[in-house]
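Standup notes, structure subgroup. Blocker cleared on the DQA input:
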Amino acid sequence: MKIIIINGPNLNLLGKREPEIYGSNSFEDYFRQLQSQFKDIELTYFQSNIEGELIDKIHETGFSYDGIILNAAAYTHTSVGIGDAVKGVETPVVEVHISNVYERESFRHTSYIAPNVKGIIAGFGLQSYELAIRSYIK
Ligand code: DQA
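Run returned:
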């Protein structure tokens, strides 16, 4: 099974950025942990701060991968383009957030991605990604 984790803007700063909200681990360290936890799954990781690069990666993987775990970060709340990309591909997408966006500012309550995803996991810290992986295991 092939699953890609796609992280959007500012998530390259995980570990340094607002640690009271996003924790103090880097995503690279956590990703290595996930790879050793799910040895039977071919896990890939991609991060970009650029909207078009996120769309390109969804297109590139969205017809051949078994799963896309997408934390589009701030673009979740603004990007019709990423929403359309998710709608346009075949691979089921799980929307993930580290924080519970629904207990935060109201602009974080809107998602342009949510209408076309398999499910949403938010608020479990980095563990949100592990839960998303588990959702693809039968
Ligand atoms: C986030 C929540 C978004 O509102 C925010 O812009 C992020 C990260 C999360 O993982 O909790 O950058 O997607």
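Discussed briefly. The helical segments are 19-22, 27-37, 51-61, 80-88, 127-134.
Next: hand off to the docking folks.
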